[in-house]
Amino acid sequence: MGMTTPPRTLAEALRARDDESLAGLLRARPDLLSPVPNDITQLATRAGTRASVVRALEHLDRFALQTAEALAVAPDPAPYDTLLGLLTGDGRDDGEHRDDAGAAVVDALPGALTTLREQALVWGEDERLHLVRTARELLSPSPQHPSPTGLGPTVSEATSGMSPGRLQEILATAGLPATYDPVSAVTALAALFTDRARMGELLDTAPVEALSVLDRLVWGPPYGEVTPNPTPPVKWLRDRGLLLPVSTRTVVLPREAALHLRAGRAHRVPEPQPPAVVAVAERDPQAVDSAAAGQAFLSVSTVEELLKSWNGGGPAILRAGGLSVRELKKTAAVLDVSEPVAAFWIELAYAAGLLASDGEADERYAPTPAYDDWTELPAQDRWVRLASAWLAATRAPGLVGGQDAKGRALSTLGPDLDRSAAPEVRHRVLALLAALPAGTAPDPETLLARLRWERPLRGASASAGDTTDLRSRIALWTLNESELLGITGRGALASQTRALLTTGPAEAAARLAPLIPEPLDHVLLQADLTAVAPGPLERPLADMLAAVADIESKGGATVYRFTPGSVRRGLDAGQSAADLHAFLAAHSRTPVPQPLSYLIDDVARRHGHLRIGAASAYVRCDDEAVLNEILADKRSAVLRLRRLAPTALAAQIDPASLLDGLRELGYAPAAESADGDVLITRAGARRTPPRAAPVPVPEGPPVPDPTLLGAAVRAIRAGDTAATVVHKDAGPATPPAPAGALPRTTSAETLVTVQAAAMTGSALWIGYVNAEGAASQRVIAPVRVEGGYVTAYDHTADEVRTYPLHRITGVAELADDQRT
Predict the structure, then answer these.
(1) Who's near 568: CB < 8 A, 6+ residues apart?
(2) What is the number of other CB atoms lying within 10 angstroms of the CB of residue 12?
């Protein structure tokens, strides 16, 4: 580091780092860059703020956090050996020889300290390790916030308000010599608790019940409630200082005594090594890839089916945002899946930018124009786009059906489903799967244990092994969603997913393509008015078949059923009976059954016999008997029909409602234009305006790129130089500027000095006052001086700027050993 003396502050420790180490700090803690600190001192101050320290602690792995927790209960500063002893113990419970766990701690501790130092949570040499003050406050024990180690306050802290007389009583009962100095009394009591031999002798005289009380407090929490007349065991402990009063009803086991009972360990079980992810099954990698590919194709088909069902305009948006429970149930029935799975597919389509709000007054969800482009892609490319969107999305569909902090229900596509941790957890889960041999399915519990080690919960939930925290829930959702999406097959990571994570989308699509079945150009028509598609169909065939038939069942083969309503739907779309006969004959590997031909001809014969227009709406028909039949039907009363002429009826409802009403009565009317031509209605015409995919909500500031990191480090160094530099006198008429003050020179001296620096390319230290009157110090390298302005490279801002000379308060050359 180039330091000759140990650092006295965090700022000095940071100042001694090289540029690469500073860049590493800013990369690990990007919140320190918002905005870029002016100098090292400001960087150190910002690194010690509560919000920044909390964020840094939450990103530590379990052993690095245990190391920080041990430093929080150690003296400040703490020697390396003291810290090591707190993590391994003093050897009394393992025969003076560290066991395998202790050896693992010895091996892992340097790495944990390096991590803490890199993140500016610990500074100082090994003989004087300092935990930053804010971290010590966050991890230190108090009645309101017990220490994660389960240790209580020190003897000195616990006796700070105790009367000298009470201290003397404790010393006398504990067999210590009396002293009338409270400080000496506290020191003597603490020395007793840290002396192995004397503490052992004291505990040998303790009642068995008193030892049981200590056993309950030793690993925390160290606080207990007592009655005004405590039991003899509690009184024995209290009289000897092994329990010290916190309040009239609360006592605490002091830290020194607890450490003796723990054999010197700050943690019951140090965890220097991450737990292994255990395999529960090893499968054939080719079978895994095939299973994942089949599910990948199904996921593409499901999303397409979802958006087709919303082609004419999807469900309305709730006033608070999102999809109603009723609409979610309807969508789940259409997709033939459970409601949580339907919520996943809807959220996936939304994350991929295929689904959005139409922005109308009566706001509804509908496919976006990007959906049409997506449907034109090969199946493997469509899957890659879905998988990539899922990996990056901060939406958490697993939350649907739960409640937010205010007790409000969380709905699909609602505004409160973003969880910034979701992408990081998904990538980490898949990375752990990728680290296993190909075809290996992991045990979910060991996977969760590994994730909790890498990012442990702080506080009681971590020690209790709580599996209900958000990150664990996201990890479990990730495993389920991976199987649905085809990321994994039979629980193991597929090779196409490995390619997506490492090589990129193109390689993933190339590996998936041979595993996806080729689309077919034919179906098998059957006499029961059904058509069987033995595999995926080519798009034109699938679209046409969906227009004239209803899907009856899905699976390895899709079964379509022809009904009068489905045939009429095809005729409404502009097809004629001849067109339908030709289409079926061209795409069926079996002869067209006679019942199907009769069905098409019968519906076509009646199709368009009635004509619907606007009166508000009207019905016209050349056959008066048909109109008489409609008027005589009691079910037509809701249509509010009246006869205008022998061949025409008028209605007081809109044409679309009249059209639907007559179809419900069993007729096959056709809509017509003002010119009397039949209107052709085509499905899938409704699209939202162009919409971009939703932007993921980041977890804190984004990690800066190397260019920004380099510029930030240079700016911080330059600002630090400006703040701490030794300045030369600008001239004999100008006294040296006091530390921290702006340099002062006359206008003539400023101009001459700046012109000379522009000719020699040297750097200057200047004082500058901007248009708002804010003063600052800067280090600049003048390039050009003309017209009352100086153009210079500003080392502080890391850019070229132009400064009016009249706003420069003064200039000074940098000392020879401070030039940049």
Answers:
(1) 603, 607, 663, 668
(2) 17
Residue range 197-221: average pLDDT? 90
Cα–Cα distance for residue pair 539/543, rounded to 1 Å: 6
- Residue 60: pLDDT band (50, 70, 90) is very high
Here the tokens at position 567 are 């045939």
Q: How far apart are CA 446 and CA 691, in angstroms?
A: 41
Q: Which pLDDT tens digit goes with each residue over 499-536?
A: 999 999 999 999 999 998 888 888 999 999 999 988 88
Has residue 92 got a pLDDT over 80? Answer: no
Mean pLDDT of the chain: 85
* pLDDT tens string 8-33: 899 999 999 998 999 999 999 998 88
Instruction: Determine the 3-state secondary structure of 232 from DSSP.
Output: helix
Number of Cβ atoms within 10 Å of the Cβ of 207: 12
Name the residue type at position 210: A
CA 711 – CA 716 distance, rounded (Å): 9
Burial 735-749 (b: 16+ CB within 10 A, else e): eebeeeebbbbeeeb
- Within 13 A of 787's CA, how many CA atoms are on the CB side? 4
Find the Cα–Cα–Cα–Cα dihedral 756, 761, 763, 766, rounded to 10°: 40
d(CA 169, CA 176): 10
Question: Residue 684: what are its φ and ψ, rounded to 5°?
Answer: 85, 20
Q: Are 581 and 600 in contact (CB under 8 A)?
A: yes
**Rounded distance between C-alpha atoms, residue 411 and residue 332, angstroms:** 14
Looking at per-residue pLDDT, the higher value among 255 and 708 belongs to: 255
Q: How far apart are CA 509 and CA 496, in angstroms?
A: 7
CA distances from 635 to 118, 568, 610 (A): 79, 22, 17
Whether residue 739 has pLDDT greater than 50? no
**Which are the contacts of 664, defined by CB distance < 8 A and separation ≥ 6?**
none
Cα R_g (the chain), whole angstroms: 39
Amino acid identity at 126: D
Question: Model pTM greater than 0.85?
Answer: no
State the DSSP string of 16-38: TS-HHHHHHHHHH-GGGGSS--S
CB 511 within 8 A of CB 495: yes
Please provide residue 813's backbone torsions phi and psi, each rounded to the nearest 5 degrees.
-75, 150
- Structural contact between residues 453 and 270, judged by C-beta atoms closer than 8 angstroms: no
**Tokens found for residue 802:** 């132009």
Better-predicted residue by pLDDT, 610 or 453 = 453
Structure tokens at 85: 């002893």
pLDDT score for 733? 43
Q: Which residues contact 605 (CB under 8 A, 6 or more apart)?
A: none
Q: Helix, strand or coil for residue 173? A: helix
Distances (CA, A) of 693 to 351, 353, 414: 6, 4, 15
Q: Measured between alpha carbons, how far is 151 from 711 in angstroms, rounded to an integer?
A: 44
- Please state, in angstroms and rounded to a whole number, the distance separating the CA atoms of residues 282 and 101: 30
Give CA angle at 149 (146, 152), nearest 5°.
50
What are the phi and psi torsion angles at 803 (to 5°)?
-120, 130
Alpha helices, H only, 635-705: 655-664
Position 263, amino acid: A
- Name every residue whose Cβ is closer than 8 Å to that of residue 594 and which is 6 or more positions away in sequence: 527
Helices (H), 141-181: 155-158, 164-173
By the 8 A CB rule, do 349 and 303 touch? yes
Residues 784-807 pLDDT 10s? 888 889 988 887 666 778 889 988
Closest by CA to 308, choosing from 276, 288, 331, 285, is: 331
- Residue 195, judged by CB atoms within 10 A of its CB (0-12, 13-18, 19+), counts as middle
Residue 146 pLDDT:
63
DSSP-derived secondary structure letter, 79: -
Structure tokens that stand for 269 in this block: 């079980």
**The pLDDT of residue 100 is above 80:** no
In angstroms, the CA 142 to CA 148 distance is: 11
